[in-house]
Amino acid sequence: MTPKINGRLSARSMAFVLAGGRGSRLKELTDNRVKPAVFFGGKARIIDFALSNALNSGIRKMSVATQYKAHSLIRHCQRGWNFFRAERNEYLDILPASQRVEENKWYVGTADAVTQNIDIVDSYGIEYILILAGDHIYKMDYEIMLRQHVDTNADVTVGCLTVPREEATAFGVMHVDENYRITQFLEKPADPPSIPGDPKHALASMGIYVFKWSFLRELLLVDAANPDSTHDFGGDLIPEIVKNGKAQAHRFNDSCVRHDPKAPAYWRDVGTVDAFWRANIDLTDFTPDLDLWDTNWPIWTYSESVPPAKFIHDQEDRRGSAVSSLVSGGCIVSGTEIKKSLLFTQVHTNSYASLDQVVALPYVNVARSARLRNCVIDRGVHIPQGLVVGEDPVEDAKWFRVTEGGVTLITQSMIDARAAKL
């Protein structure tokens, strides 16, 4: 075992965030933006969680690899993450797939996204690299994972969730020994192996990896020369290390940042409309599992300069009110009853309308007398006067997307198509 090194390992590390995936299960929410750029929690974007974890962990060198419909993601990073100073050896670079290696070659896998930018990573002069997925909601201290990587002298350390065995069939699963050394990496196994001493649970990959850069660099070059490789971390590199090197599992429970020691380890893949709606609505709970108010581990993001939220009218059937809800800056709640809902920046609602368990993305406008329940409303949608959604799923499905969980997704193109036929 290598000796412990004094000082924070994060100071000698970089975070490489993979943010190129479309996220097609979010349906129309990713028609114009990549999944990591999807809004979350009233102010933030999904990618802010990975970037904030890195920043709060002490990492000051970051790269974000983009590919699919990246404009809104790039603009968000430029506006919200522009406080890094190169003279202090701080960087956040945006790395679009730009045919840097050869003409007509985009990123063809997660590992290839790093391979094509080896020269940029070299220029940082770092010792360790964290490979992060940019599309999950969680709080994690990466320094703890880095320390385990060094202390166990691993070739790769894989961040892992502890999940019930019956749920692990949807993940890449780690089969580990009693020291949490990975002996097998199984992709969506029908019979997931359990954790030693815990037969009811399995270890599922979070898509988070720690490497020593010199080791990964050599591995990437070998992989790039292999015509049979898909150039993917989970599909190629990690199984290779499990077979011929030392792969170590890191339990998320050990590094999860909690607002209360008794709180559960919070991690969400908001990759479906139902999961996205549920995770946002959960924030309206009296004590949500995800604490966005924790100033010790803040979620950094781009904050627009907007006035405070405003509630107007105080008549019996025309009262601007919100109960068990999150209402962001710039919102105007005019004579609308809002219950257990989340309103993003600059949402305006009008008299006699009602919103119940609604997630309204920025710049939504709800006209008079609309009744909305169990909805996700995309950015900039204008809800017409008197529209009723969430009471008749058969009628809703004629015009909008209704999920298996009974959530209705509304976009402006759906509203326009409905208006053209009525």
Features:
9-stranded mixed β-sheet; 27% strand; alpha/beta; 10 helices; Spore Coat Polysaccharide Biosynthesis Protein SpsA, Chain A; 422 residues; UDP N-Acetylglucosamine Acyltransferase, domain 1; 2 domains
Quick summary:
This protein is of the alpha/beta class. It has helices at residues 47-56, 71-80, 110-115, 118-124, 142-151, 213-224, 233-244, 273-282, 393-399, 412-421; strands spanning 13-18, 39-40, 44-45, 61-66, 91-96, 128-133, 137-138, 156-164, 172-176, 182-187, 201-212, 247-251, 267-268, 310-312, 314-315, 318-319, 321-323, 326-327, 332-334, 337-339, 342-343, 348-349, 354-360, 365-366, 371-377, 382-383, 388-389, 401-402, 408-410. The chain has two domains: 9-284, Spore Coat Polysaccharide Biosynthesis Protein SpsA, Chain A; 310-420, UDP N-Acetylglucosamine Acyltransferase, domain 1 (3 Solenoid), CATH 2.160.10.
Strand segment tally: 29
Query: Which CATH architecture of the largest domain?
Result: Alpha-Beta Complex
* CATH fourth-tier homologous superfamily of the largest domain: Spore Coat Polysaccharide Biosynthesis Protein SpsA, Chain A
Low-pLDDT stretches: 1-5
Q: Could you tell me how far the N terminus lies from the C terminus, measured between alpha carbons in angstroms?
A: 72 Å
Please tally the helical runs, counting DSSP H or I stretches of 4 or more residues.
10
- Portion in beta strands: 25-35%
Q: Which range best describes the helical content: under 10%, 10-25%, 25-40%, 40-55%, 55-70% or over 70%?
A: 10-25%
| Sheet having the most strands | 9 strands, mixed
Radius of gyration: 23 Å
What coarse outline follows from CA principal-axis ratios? globular
CATH class of the largest domain: Alpha Beta
- How many separate structural domains? 2
